Amino acid sequence: MVGFVTSKKHSQHAFPWAMTVLAVVLITTIVVDVIGNLLVILSVFRNRKLRKTGNAFVVSLALADLLVAVYPYPLVLTAIFHGGWIAGYLHCQVSGFLIGLSVIGSIFNITGIAVNRYCYICHSLRYDRLFSGTNTVCYVALVWALTVLAIVPNWFMESLQYDPRVYSCTFAQSVSSAYTIAVVVVHFVLPIAIVCYCYLRIWMLVIRVRRRVKPDSRPKLKPHDLRNFLTMFVVFVLFAVCWAPLNLIGLAVALDPRLGRAIPEWLFTASYFMAYFNSCLNAVIYGALNHNFRKEYKRIVLIVFKFHC
């Protein structure tokens, strides 16, 4: 069973406070992830103003974030408390698969959101035809089909392994330099490039509208459209910030394997848990920046409290 290590001790165990910090970060992530993303899903289905075709990707992104909170993260937390993996090989493989599914599903859904916003703002006349209800369902299904297709090669490469530095069964960057480079490019660099292009075009339109460079064209950009765009833009920026360190480390190690020994263990671990933490941020961003989400959050919480009281 390639790459599976049981309860391997390593230098991090010499620092109990570090394990405590990791446990606190992960517990916080799990709680906020589950509560927040359930609120997001319920809000979209309950609130008519949020029940738009574009928010199908938001619900899909919330489901991707929930994947890790209900199965892999609790197993990682158990490994932290026991100082190593105790769940067995099968759980290791399933956990690694779901983490990969969540991560790739997240970036592909964020890409779908960016393309959707780009079409809505920059090509508004064709938006209703491009993103009809049926078409949007097909796009979301395509996102998940591509996600599964992207994660399947890990089983053939035997790259889902337990890493004692992060107490997780995850993608092993050292299995193949070429494969690691391909993963970083296809799963991170390419989607980020597409999202950057879409948001750059939107920003150009926003600036043009504000400065009224072309008053004759009179592009329609309502205040709530701009707020929604800014919300999704912040979601993208935080995802890129949280996942960039880990991807850069993987790319650097793939290009020069000697760097693997030079990178401090604490930096590698911090980059992993920083990436894990991203799964709980989106729901908080929606509530902070979107009035409709914030309003629906309050309604749902009040209903829950009244029901229990």
Automatic annotation (TrEMBL):
InterPro entries: GPCR_Rhodpsn, GPCR_Rhodpsn_7TM, Melatonin_rcpt. GO terms for cellular component: plasma membrane. GO terms for biological process: rhythmic process. GO terms for molecular function: melatonin receptor activity. The chain crosses the membrane at residues 20-45, 57-82, 94-115, 136-157, 177-207, 228-246, 266-289. The keyword Cell membrane applies. Residues 36-286 form the G-protein coupled receptors family 1 profile domain. The keyword Cell membrane applies. Keywords: Cell membrane, G-protein coupled receptor, Membrane, Receptor, Transducer, Transmembrane, Transmembrane helix. Gene3D superfamilies: Rhodopsin 7-helix transmembrane proteins (1.20.1070.10). High affinity receptor for melatonin. The activity of this receptor is mediated by pertussis toxin sensitive G proteins that inhibits adenylate cyclase activity. Belongs to the G-protein coupled receptor 1 family. This is Melatonin receptor type 1A like. It comes from Hippocampus comes.
